[in-house]
Specification:
single chain; alpha+beta; 11-stranded mixed sheet; 4-stranded mixed sheet; 7 helices
């Protein structure tokens, strides 16, 4: 959906995004050889972001942009395999990192699109079975001074609410193996593989196709509490404004959902930053 009604400061967002992309550089502890391969590191907001969805409280949400600033992205060959519930860090002789902050727009593409590229690294062959990253404030670009910016439109019962949601709280995740239909992260000599940072936005808004008592809905804030904050027909709020304007329960739902965004497919991650 083209959001022509969103004509305020995001009208030049494409140029800002182009200026926010940084080049991914590998930091390799071992020396690379001719038999090394390529590891693509990707970010995925899933179909909820690319196609739109209905929130737990009946709002059809369509995104124009979901900008996220990624930093400290590192893929590991962990031995033993890393358990995010175990309280330890990956034990790895090989760790490949992306330098700098990379801003991606998770709303790019359609249902057939590949997840968004963060970086492509030349790496030693082997199985990359752990992934860590931070979501940070950026000094410039499409999400300057923020960690994540969501731009879109929500519609319910004939009411249309354009929105811009800005979140400046930083998060860091450390995750184990990708869980999904396809195995990821196994780089053959002179071959290509990928790993994926997956963000589950249904944890934030809920899922109108799931039962009301499904955990995906009982722990989600939905969209109605945000729609109630509309001014002149639109919602444009920061996290600090949400803290003062949402009920304590809804703000707790919101912040817990934000902290739990990070996954690897359906695989769990541990949120490693202390959050007030």
């Amino acid at each position: 959906m083209a959001l022509h009604t969103l004509g305020w400061r995001y009208s030049t967002i494409g140029a800002a995004l182009a200026g926010s992309l940084s080049v991914g550089l590998a930091i390799a502890f071992p020396a690379l050889s001719a038999e090394d391969g390529t590891l693509q590191i990707r970010a995925n907001g899933e179909d909820f972001v690319r196609q739109g969805f209905v929130s737990k409280d009946g709002w059809q949400i369509d995104f124009e942009h979901v900008f996220v600033n990624f930093a400290d992205v590192t893929a590991y060959q962990s031995d033993p395999p890393f358990d995010p519930d175990g309280g330890e860090e990956p034990k790895a002789d090989i760790a490949m990192s992306v330098e700098g902050v990379v801003t991606v727009d998770l709303a790019e593409g359609d249902e057939n699109a590949e997840p968004i590229a963060i970086a492509e690294l030349q790496v030693p062959a082997g199985r990359y079975n752990a992934l860590s990253w931070s979501m940070v404030q950026a000094a410039s670009g499409a999400a300057a001074d923020q960690v994540m910016v969501m731009v879109g439109i929500a519609v319910k019962d004939g009411t249309t609410v354009p929105f811009v949601l800005e979140f400046d709280r930083e998060y860091a995740y450390v995750c184990g193996d990708f869980v999904g239909d396809d195995r990821k992260g196994i780089v053959p000599p002179d071959g290509v593989a990928n790993v994926e940072a997956t963000l589950h936005f249904d944890h934030l808004f809920g899922d109108g196709e799931a039962a009301a008592d499904d955990p995906i809905n009982t722990g989600a804030v939905g969209f109605q509490p945000l729609a109630d904050l509309a001014r002149e027909g639109r919602v444009e709020v920061s996290l600090s404004e949400l803290e003062s304007e949402l009920s304590p329960d809804n703000f707790l739902f919101l912040t817990e959902a934000l902290a739990g965004l990070g996954h690897v497919g359906e695989g769990h991650c541990r949120q490693t930053l202390d959050i007030e």
